[in-house]
Amino acid sequence: MRGKTVKRISGAVAATLSMALLAACTAKEEPAGSASGSGKPGSDKKLEEYADEMKITAYQGTAYAGPSNGPTTEYAKYIKQKFKINVDGFVWPAGEDGQKKISLIAASGEMPDIIQYRNDSSALQIYQQMADAGMLLDIEPYLKNTPNITKYFTKTILDAYRNPTDGKLYVLPGFTVNPDLKDQLTIAVNDVLMIREDWLSKLNLQVPKTPDEFYEVLKAFKSLPPVNGKQVVPYVPLSEGGEINYHIGGMFGIHRYADARDDNEKRMIDAHEKPEYLQYLKFASKLFREGLIDPEAYKLKWQQPYNDMIPKGYVGVASMWPNDISGFNKGFEKSIPGAKYVPMPLPKAPGVTNSRIGHINTLGSSAIVISKKMSDPERLFKYMDWMNTNEGWATMVWGPPSKDNGAWYIAEDGKLIDNFELDQKKMAENPKWGADVLGAWAYGLSGILKYTHDLVLDQARQMNETRALAKKQYDSEIYMDTILDIYLNTPPGPIRKAKGVDLDKIFQETEARIIMKAKDDADVETMYNAMMEQAKKAGFIEILKEDYGRYTAVKEKYK
């Protein structure tokens, strides 16, 4: 895996869009920042033209611990020199509970200039508390002059973040996805299946297109001789069996029911009650009992297959991040010449077109709130808008541009060039060079991670062929629905809050038990029927009726 790439997160920015593209949005999805709001009008002063130094304090409550020497990173020095912006006051969690931390900040009434944290319902409730207490800045007036931020919003996306008390906008979401810009998504599905192409060729088989063909390929892989003393494992899912449900379930379309409703009974429809789910259980159970799925699948974390099993060459099919497939093939050049993985499309049962495994949350994955006491919000928003340009995002991701001492640089023709050889040399000398020396990935505020050109630098080189192929194969699995995203992000009702955890536990534990223990299809059906009876006793129908009310309320509000 390359030093510049973050596990499970691939990202950067697309080429800057013109404001004309914003005007092309549909009537229902007007670009954000067009609504009138109170506040100071925008200034024409450029970010580079400010004479005084502006200090920014920020708590970045993400999982990343930050550089060990923030004020001395190349990023901090570069931004101070380029824009006279001082980011020495950025603070990252040190093993603390981020939500507890911002709850304490909210209770104290005192906050840094910026808080960056999650955008889930529990975090939004804390932001509302802070807004109602008069702690937060109404950001809407400042969005008017931030085209590089607002082009990734829609009116509905921003409306979803308005404060219920006064209707103002205090939360700036990060990594949102404007559905009108779908064609710019280059890593929409970040978990794909990969398969040993050399084994397919050896066995005279084609890439499977259906679950039945997938089954036949796995059986053929199992018949192969051991590799370096290791028995072949036909299929290894990652994440403690979670990707059995994700990929194998996706083959049968079980993920298409997140917003399905029964308007006659006035309740949501759950995938567990659909025939496709039972088909999935039978198929996954057959794979498991015939030894076609790793027997330890429900215990394996992603690290063991990634760092040990796959590199040793005895895995036929695995779930993987597109960026890393080429890395495994590179390693095989020395260890197992001729071995090669290629991404493969998701095999699908008849009637399944879009599996929805590529459901993208248009609301984004993080949020920032800004103190009402912030000294110069207008200048801050100009800085954040710059961060969402190609140059700004590359600087945040990999540190400042430098041909002699950076991970990338800007050529005379303006292209962003990947300084790959120097980067690899520096990383070999100091594995923390990116984080602690350059300040890579440490200072992000707003962001557009879903819009990528192979980590920005594809404008200077061709996109990785393997990654491009995976994009093409999984484009049909993308699904976006902002109304669904708002519904999923609203707080649960009292019934779900009281009974939902136990219900989820019944489904998760019983599904794994059925797949691992069922003796045949009849046994699967018996165990499945028992699970559904147990679920109904646990409040299954009551919860679905309550969820229906929550969904319809959201749909009515944002229609």
From TrEMBL:
Tagged with keyword Signal: yes
Keyword entries, A-Z: Signal
SUPFAM superfamilies: Periplasmic binding protein-like II (SSF53850)
Keyword Signal part of the UniProt annotation: yes
Signal peptide positions (record): 1-23
The organism's place on the tree of life at top rank: Bacteria
Protein name: ABC transporter substrate-binding protein
